[in-house]
Amino acid sequence: MKRKRVASRLFNIFLLAVLCYLILTSLSDRNKTISIREVPQIYINEEDELFVNTTGCRISATKPLSLYALSFMEPIEPVLCRMEQLMVAETIGDRNYLVRNISRHGILSWRQVSCIYREFVRVDDAHNKYISLKFFKLTDRTRYLEVGTGLQHIRTWCWVDFGRIIFHDVMYFLPPLPQATNRSTEHQKRKLSVMILGVDSISHMHYMRYFHRVADFIEHLPHTEFWGYNRVALNTYPNLIPLVSGLSVSEMEASCYHDELNFDKCNFLWNEFKRAGYSTIFAEDTDTAGLFIYRKRGFQKQPTDIYMRPLMTEIESHSLYRTTFDLKCTGHRLYGEFYYDFVSKLIPHMERQLFFSFLWNMHGIHDVFPYAKFVDKDYLSILTRLHEKGVMENTLILFMGDHGLRFDKFARTAPGQHEMSQPLLIAIYPEWLKRRFPLAMSNFERNARSLITTFDLHETLKDVIHLDRLTDANVRNRTLYLTNERGISLFLPIPQNRNCKTAEIKQHYCLCNELKSVSTHESAIQEAASFAVDRINELIKPYPQCRVLSLQSVRTAYRAKSSTYRGNYRVSQVMVRLKTTPGDGNFDATVLITMLNGEKTDMKLGGPVTRTDRYAHQAYCVQNYRIEMYCYCL
Ligand SMILES: *[C@@H]1O[C@H](CO)[C@@H](O)[C@H](O)[C@H]1NC(C)=O
Ligand SMILES: *[C@@H]1O[C@H](CO)[C@@H](O)[C@H](O)[C@H]1NC(C)=O
Ligand SMILES: *[C@@H]1O[C@H](CO)[C@@H](O)[C@H](O)[C@H]1NC(C)=O
Ligand SMILES: *[C@@H]1O[C@H](CO)[C@@H](O)[C@H](O)[C@H]1NC(C)=O
Ligand SMILES: *[C@@H]1O[C@H](CO)[C@@H](O)[C@H](O)[C@H]1NC(C)=O
After folding, report:
1. Which residues line ligand 1 (CB under 6 A)?
2. Chain segment 260-271, per-residue pLDDT in tens
3. By the 8 A CB rule, do 575 and 609 touch?
4. Do 270 and 141 lie in a common domain?
5. Which of 339, 408, 512, 569 is 20 to 30 A (C-alpha) from 366?
6. CATH number at residue 432
7. Ligand 4 centroid to 189 CA: how many Å?
8. Residue that terminates a domain, selected from 437, 468, 489
């Protein structure tokens, strides 16, 4: 026990050293990366084209290949995990096997290799427990080791030379396939499965820059590409909570997470689909950054029928190692590859039953600008298989992001700022939906050019549970009673006068505000910047461990082209992009300035102040996700 503690302390010191090294190298690399001049010029396409042109909102068309973006599209080498994949998991008949995967170079003699596998089961979102331990050797003659039947999670590792680990990975065997149900029965034909196929941090423009193969493929499928999809808040959690719950974060937390123990009491979409007889799936390729995990407590009770989390928990605490760009590997696979494999293995299950799946991918693409280039082929392969296996015949797929790239230099350019609020959303659906529900689907397609959010997606998916709501007669009646709410099913016509206010999008994230750049020397801009820094300092006041920040410089500034009027009062909106000290934090703030007869009467923030660089190592002393981005620890 004691030796273990010493070892773990040594290991921590080692980790700390590695961390320091990484921070130092990333600092010294900073000047090497593209030195892009932050030219304060108007970036929006000045031509007439608009993505959205309604009475409530105009969103200018932007271009994926601006000069700025091009300078970030550096060539990138494929990223590899160095460990060889000594074994793979395979189910043959109804039995599960670990199958020796012949080493590429044949350098090893199997006789020197000793292995252990342990089967584990989920306890909660942070813990697994082992239910077996077996020692084994794979000889030249035996390629297959039988490990059991049905759903199994297994961690296995092998070593040579009295303890040098040469292989360490987590394997899974899915539950047996359900009996093939008869698709031609009336019951099945009336229903539609749902797949939320999410890619974190992918903006619409980023998709257009990199997902060429996927885009070509989707072109030949019935689909709708949405041009007015706007984020409602900063990052993944507050943008996806409306999707899965129909509520804002504060409403959801007040209703079912007030004791902050876990999310078990919350009613998320998968619960509703489950009650309607669907199988449910939840998978994300991350441990620490999970939707319900980052600074949260996750679930005590497993939320969906198929759940990837126990695998990620096990990998993260045992088999994880890192490679180029600090990307994470297990066995021979990057986290992303592990996830694509998991999703592919689910396809036979999706073929045979109604399902609701929430699939979310972030590895690599969340952090490395040109990484999307690799992801293109992975998604092409997933979509191709869903098509070939007939899953698409029965499924509404939302291929979507939550926001654009939020960190590092691209986010600090003008198009990067815009793209952060403009995530990707493409719906892919079977042709018969248009035949059966012509009015609903014509609304759906018209909404491709409306201002929409994840609140609307929630209402849309609720309609999928009760498809009879979509008949022409019902849609006509529902349209009569339609009010300009924040969440409206996309099968209904989004009102022309919807704007960011009625859609509950904070000004800071609102794409309908056309911005023009203004001089950072204007006194109104300098005042707005100081005002924003003062607001930050107010927020961190209760945390004495955070240093008070002061304004270092205003990098760029924009003013909304039009002001709003309230009686004699005029409200103008500016956005300042500033740097603070200590810590060199990069922040964006939208400030609303109220004027009366040319005199300023009031200033307030149009949404939270947001950050566009990484801060984790500065904010180690706070555990509060609302505060951490502002905190430079003493
Ligand atoms: C980056 O370049 C600037 C100006 O060329 C220089 O002042 C600064 O020290 C450099 N920073 C690093 C980390 O090399
Ligand atoms: C936007 O819509 C208005 C009203 O329908 C129309 O007059 C105008 O030409 C449209 N603008 C563009 C750029 O399409
Ligand atoms: C076997 O290992 C090689 C190299 O590690 C890998 O490229 C290959 O995909 C593995 N085979 C399977 C079936 O996973
Ligand atoms: C499905 O149903 C049809 C007609 O009811 C029948 O001809 C067919 O054999 C069934 N297929 C299976 C796999 O049960
Ligand atoms: C139309 O919708 C209203 C309000 O939802 C409802 O009360 C009414 O029964 C509906 N009428 C028909 C014919 O479906």
Report:
1. 27-28, 30-31
2. 899 999 999 999
3. no
4. no
5. 512
6. 3.40.720.10
7. 13
8. 437
